[in-house]
Amino acid sequence: MSSSSLSEKNVDDEKHLHATAATQEVDEAAQLATQEDIDPAEALRIRRKIDKHILPLMCILYWIQFMDKTTLGSSAILGIKTSAHLNANQYNWLGTIFYLSYLLFEYPQNLALQRFPVGKWMSINIFIWGVALCSHAACHSFGSLFAVRFILGICEGSITAGFMIVSGMFYTRKEQTLRVGYWFLMNGTAQIVIAFISFGALHIKTTGFEPWQWLMIMTGGLTLFTAVAYWFLFPDSPTNAWFLTPEERAIAVSRIKENQTGVENKHFKKEQMIEALTDPKTWIFALLSCVDNIPNSLTNQNSIIIASFGFTVLQTTLLGCVSGLIEIVTIFTGVTIAARYANSIAIVGTVYFIPNVLGSILVNVLPWSDKVGLLFSVWITGVGTTGFVLALSWVSQTTAGHTKRVTTNAIMLVAYCVGNALGPQMWQAKYSPRNHVPWIVIGICYLICPMLMMLQRHILSKENKRRDQEPADDAYDDVWVRVSDESGNAIEKKVDKAFLDLTDHQNRDFRYVL
User: Fold this and answer.
1) C-beta of residue 70 within 8 angstroms of C-beta of residue 190
2) Global model pTM greater than 0.85
3) How far apart are CA 403 and CA 59, in angstroms?
4) What is the DSSP string of 441-485?
């Protein structure tokens, strides 16, 4: 909080005197939060109610959005390259442009998520992307597909960023690790479902309308239905969640006080943005996000790679289910272990990257005749997805101050886009069918990622120890905010430090999860 945030007597001389914060400076939840201890049983009941109403929606949307992203890869074996007259370079650019537009609009999307109601803004984006996905079916050239893929990238920039914000609003830091894992593992479910949808589309025989076009219509229709559901059912914040009573909202807010991150603040704070930009951990997370997602180009190459091993179109389509199953199992086990054992995020993430390195090496060294060995090598490179999932939950648990969180999320997701935009460009026709160069790059990336996670852990652990040695900081222990009581009378209410919208640097009681 800047010095201008507080209206104090003798502010230059008496820092610790009773201070009154302007309403727009504190967290949106400040007026609801209670100073009283809450009953653990009641807190558990509220958490289960939150899970019941928002977790299924988050899982469904993440399943939908990943399935929509992978329609390009699935369409590759359903005839889109022939129908739209795409060469290998143009096909790769359709994967790249999605992430370039995602990159360009990621920070504006994060600012919009701060300024507007989260649920409503996300639903608008979901609707537009559903229309764009259906429009793929009308495209028969590189230019038209380029345009609709560009629109998809713009809209998807709101989803992961929105989910990171919502997870921080409704859940404690320990709970966030599991919940982020739950909605992210729907990527694996999407790989299984899209395989069966593609299998069904392959058997649709219509004159003038090819299987890949039916795939776009079916997945686009599901997306449009999801957009409507989000408009009416997805909450914007625990302070106004439609499924919670006023009393339950107060408990929901107080329940996350231990995070020391608050719920949200609709006002952009320049000083918090600057702090995010100058915080070393922001850029370590960004580098991790970029490097880890260069290999994510496998999403659109997976079907082509498996088919190159000699499998038929039908076999390739069904074998795509295995990658999804591996992702589900590894993400679930990884986040469960990280949530059970305190300060284990970096260690668990590092362990889960080991199979990825091994798989990358095996794909390069196994003989081309060993199709089964090559197939299994490709499959085990999906285990390390858990590392990125843990990093997503980790950044939310180590960043406080709403503008700082929004900025940090944006930087991390922009880096995610850079990695995803670079990745497709390494799959050049001259490297096929062995693709030694892409697989070497992938192996190097998977070696760097665990190193970055352990470096981040070392830096944050050192900072925690430094704070443990500091004297108690009572600078923000006596701050009040003017509110109206039930009769409309203006009163002052004491605000807990957790709801002053302080950054993790300003709040010396904040301890970093490791």
Assistant:
1) yes
2) no
3) 26
4) HHHHHHHHHHHHHHHHHHHHHHHHHHHHHSPP--TTSSEEEEEE-
Tokens describing residue 229: 């559901």
Sign of CA dihedral 9, 14, 17, 23: positive
Q: How far apart are CA 356 and CA 335, in angstroms?
A: 17
| Contact indicator for 393, 404 with CB cutoff of 8 Å | no
Backbone angles phi, psi at 206, to 5 degrees: -135, 145
Strands of the sheet with 6-8, listed across from one edge = 6-8, 19-21, 479-484, 490-495
Backbone angles phi, psi at 300, to 5 degrees: -90, -10
- Comparing 261 with 171, the larger pLDDT belongs to 171
* Distance in angstroms (rounded) separating the CA atoms of residues 348 and 83: 45
Displacement of CA 48 from its chain's centroid (Å):
22
Q: Give the number of other CB atoms < 10 A from CB of residue 237.
A: 21
Q: Please report which helix (H) or strand (E) contains residue 6, including its range.
A: strand 6-8
Asked if residue 456 lies in contact with residue 331, where contact means CB atoms within 8 angstroms, the answer is: no
- Residues 428, 297 contacting (CB under 8 angstroms): no
Please tell me the distance from the alpha carbon of residue 439 to that of residue 121, in angstroms, as a whole number: 39
* Helix, strand, or coil (residue 76): helix
Terminal CA-CA length for the chain: 25
Cα–Cα distance, 453 to 446 (Å, whole number): 11
Taking 80 as the threshold, does the pLDDT of residue 171 lie above it? yes
Which amino acid is residue 329, in one-letter code? V
Confidence class of residue 495 from pLDDT cuts 50, 70 and 90?
Answer: low
The C-alpha atoms of residue 238 and residue 263 are separated, in whole angstroms, by: 8
Q: Residue 301 has which token pair?
A: 């190459």
Q: What is the pLDDT of residues 123-157, one digit of tens each?
A: 999 999 999 999 999 998 999 999 999 999 899 88
